[in-house]
Amino acid sequence: MSELLTSPYNKLTLSGHETFHCRQLWLKKGYDFVNNGNKFTDVEAVVLLGVGKNMVASIYFWMKAFSLIDGEGKLTSLAHYIFSSEGKDPFLEDEATLWLLHYHLVNQGFSSIYDLIFNYLRREKIEFTKENFLLFVQRKANEIGFTQFNKKTAGTDFDVLTKMYIRTTDQVKDKEDTFSGLLADLNLIQEEKKQTSLYSIPNESRNNLPEEIILYTILDKQDFQNSVSLNMLFQDRNQAGSVFGITKNALMEKLESLANNPKYKKYGVTLSDHAGIKELQFVSKPDKFEILNHYYGN
Asked: Which parts of the sequence belong to the DUF4007 domain (predicted)?
């Protein structure tokens, strides 16, 4: 059975972004818009958001894709935590917040391409082209019996993804560019050969990825009791190794740092090694937002 068949959906969600990648201030703009009691379907949305009709739909799409509004259009706890008037990083000035948003974009699975590329395609191909991706998605669509696959639509999704994660040469020169990809600073997706459009997501040490974000992603899952293995964290779907493209050694070092951090002693956080099986263990699991408070408090 294909791994994709065990994922929580039986269809692929493509498009919805109106061909726009998420811009730097859109999420804050969208948060304030909804927090003030507005709806994206309101006639006044174009005026209140100060963008065109297609961009209104795109902002709505990205708010859902990043887990900032739920299925009923209500703001989530994550949205309030980041973007409220007392939010931790409303203007996305801290790279840790970008890692957090990237995790939710992949984990949410609202836009299938991010789940497919980070959890599946990069396991088969560290280096890939747009055509590799399209063939991969078509194969997965056939496996789950998804008959509405459209190659052109999937191709547009891929173009939007590369704009989100890769900064062009012109954008690198323009430090004030507001159209560059929201997640480009993470350097997750590399453009290996521009002339052949060859991309890669290699495993790296990710020194700029805070250990608190790793712990948050662990605590965000409900499917473990009081211990989680290094192997699972490194290779399972939506876990740190898959989502962040981090090496196993670097992930181990971050877990060791968490276990040795005195702030987490009250939760009984330890790193055990029984017969070569390394596990992060908790006496009591802390609240995931409390862990983020430790990071942003610094």
From this structure: 15-296
pLDDT tens, residue by residue, 144-170:
888 888 999 999 999 999 999 998 655
In order, the DSSP letters of 112-178 are HHHHIIIIIIHHH-SEE-HHHHHHHHHHHHHHTT-TT--HHHHHHHHHHHHHHH---HHHHH-TT-S
Q: How far apart are CA 104 and CA 107, in angstroms?
A: 5
- What pLDDT was estimated at residue 3? 43
Q: Where are the domains of the chain?
A: 17-94, 111-202, 211-297
Q: Is the pLDDT of residue 114 over 70?
A: yes
Q: Which of 169, 222, 218 is nearest to 191 (CA)?
A: 169
Look at the domain 211-297 and name its fold.
Arc Repressor Mutant, subunit A (1.10.10)
On whether the pTM is more than 0.85, the answer is yes
- What the block records as the tokens of 185 is 């600073």
Query: Would you tell me how many other CB atoms lie within 10 Å of the CB of residue 34?
Result: 20
Answer whether residue 2 shows pLDDT above 90. no
Q: Cβ contacts of residue 268 below 8 Å, gap of 6+?
A: 281, 282, 283, 284
Q: Which residues of 233-251 are buried (b: 16+ CB within 10 A; e: fewer)?
A: bbebbbbbbbbbbbeeebb
Closest CA to 214 of 167, 164, 271: 271
For the stretch 126-147, pLDDT in tens is 899 999 999 999 999 999 888 8
